[in-house]
Model the fold of this input.
Amino acid sequence: MPGPTPDSPRDVRPTLEAVAALAGVSRATASRVVNGGAGVRQPLVEQVRKAVDELGYVPNHAARTLVTRRNGAVAVIIDEPEFRIFSDPFFSQQIRGISRELNVYDAQLVLLLVEGSGDFDRVARYLAGGHVDGALAFSLHMDDELPAVIRRFRVPTVYGGRPGRPGAASELAVPYVDCDNRGGAAEAVRHLVSLGRQRIAHIAGPRDQTSALDRIDGYRDVLPDGDPALLAEGDFTVEGGARAMTQLLERHPDLDAVFAANDLMASGALRVLRERGRRVPEEVALVGFDDMLSIAEATDPPLTTVRQDVEGMGRLMVRMLMQRLNGDSGGEGEGDELESVITPTELVRRASA
Done:
């Protein structure tokens, strides 16, 4: 039997004219509906959408861009080396939340990684080219060039994590989504105190990131007179946690509790404690931060940790960005009137403390 001819209905791509005819509206009205334009009464919108579904019509991207002046793409900019992006489940959760919420808005995610100062020029050129409607940027470091690049090209942006210390100009100028790092850290340390632990150490994240600084502050809120030798800096990796734990045991072999600033460092600390013959939690209680289930439930013993809703924060960043793009923030791309959001944290008790 011969196959379908080029003129057979199976191979004819539905046109906008066909959508308009089926919906009983003009081509201009159909165009405004399918390409995201405004000014169409709701009953007509529903008629056009029904026709689109029946015909299987796919809007032309170039036509949509002309109508909406949007590209339908959002840049996700992460200022971390590639090995961290693909080894730390925090990033995969945040990207998953962002991607799922962008799907709701029919927008495409464009991932831009910044591994060194040389990458800022590349990112700047891309943003200047108008390829994306806005940006979501996270894992920033102090004195980061990225906010300045974004401001220079007036790219509507929402940040994941506060991009500066409290009261700093960089914080006041941009909207961000963050968790209650300080409060969550304080809750973790109070839990260790409630267990009767007296020599509580802290494995901090890198001090050029506000999340790490806030968690140090939370630790000190509960232990303001703590021994400075009970604080060691890691780098949010398993290896960094192991190195910091080794340093702490050398300085304070009698320590009886550890609060690590993320779950990866807590797992590295747990490995060193096991190698040194220190039983967890009997001799040393251990608490992490993030509640990455692939880590916290896989350690032996399972990890007590502070939960933040990483995927939910990614979704919230997208919704805030869409508010800016739709003009609901009250500003012109600067975000002055779009309030930042601090999400709550929760201590999740398992067997390590």
